[in-house]
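Notes for week 9. Today we move from apo structures to complexes. The key idea is that a small molecule is not decoration. When we ask for a structure prediction with 2-oxoglutaric acid present, the ligand SMILES becomes part of the input, just like the chain. The input block below holds both the sequence and the ligand string. Read it once before you look at the output, and try to guess where the molecule might sit.
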Amino acid sequence: MLIPTISVGSARERVAEALDEAGCVVVTGLLGETERKAIRSELGPYMEKVRVVEDDDPTQFYPGRTRRTSALVARSAAVGKLVLDDCSLGLCDRFLTTNGEFGYQLHVSAALEIGPGARRQVLHREHDSFTFFPHPRPNMIVASMWAITDFRADNGGTLIVPGSHKWNGERDAMEDEIVEAEMPAGSVLYWLGGTLHGAGANKSSDWRYGVILTYSLGWLRQEENQYLDVPPEVARNLSPELRDIIGYKMYDALGFSTNRQVGQMPD
Ligand SMILES: O=C(O)CCC(=O)C(=O)O
């Protein structure tokens, strides 16, 4: 099975149908060069400080020769706009409110650079922490990977196993079921919480740069602790929409605080 690829002008319903069917979809042409440059320049000071591990430890989840930084909402206004991207939120509306849910939240934000010589990452599912549910789990997550540089088969383009969101937990992916998400800079790859994926090996001489933003049902524990990564003094200066989606908003009865400055921050 291939990764369906759809250009930005196409009907949103086609994107949602492809994601539902394959568990993954690429949308091309969503992010311009100016925005990509802004993201790199705003995150540059943080990425530069990341120590690159040269001696890869194959038992580690994160391969060596890579750079990763998170807390992106606090660090980059350009990423803040991506978090609220219409196409992403449309997919979240479609896949994360199906059970009469009250809403969803940002689950993880990270910039990921895959350097020359990096090995392939172990395949995993965004749902992996939610062991309460048997496989195939109900969908709890929509993930997006924004290509800031081109993603190619030889430079660490994300590996995806189309259709694996419908598998039970006992089935491993065969080599010929694993597909590299090749996409030009400015594209975005979406996948669902149950879809097997991981960073590809980088056999080229350039670095692959992507921004991963995942969204989860509003009643789940977020993978990235947004209250520490975007503390109240920073959150206060964000737009109400951005503040809400990172978690400064109640989900039904969940998330109240006696500190009105935190739990019910005035606009
Ligand atoms: O970098 C990628 O392409 C995927 C990264 C990923 O899935 C992870 O770090 O959990």
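Residues 112, 145, 158, 197-199, 210 surround 2-oxoglutaric acid (CB under 6 Å).
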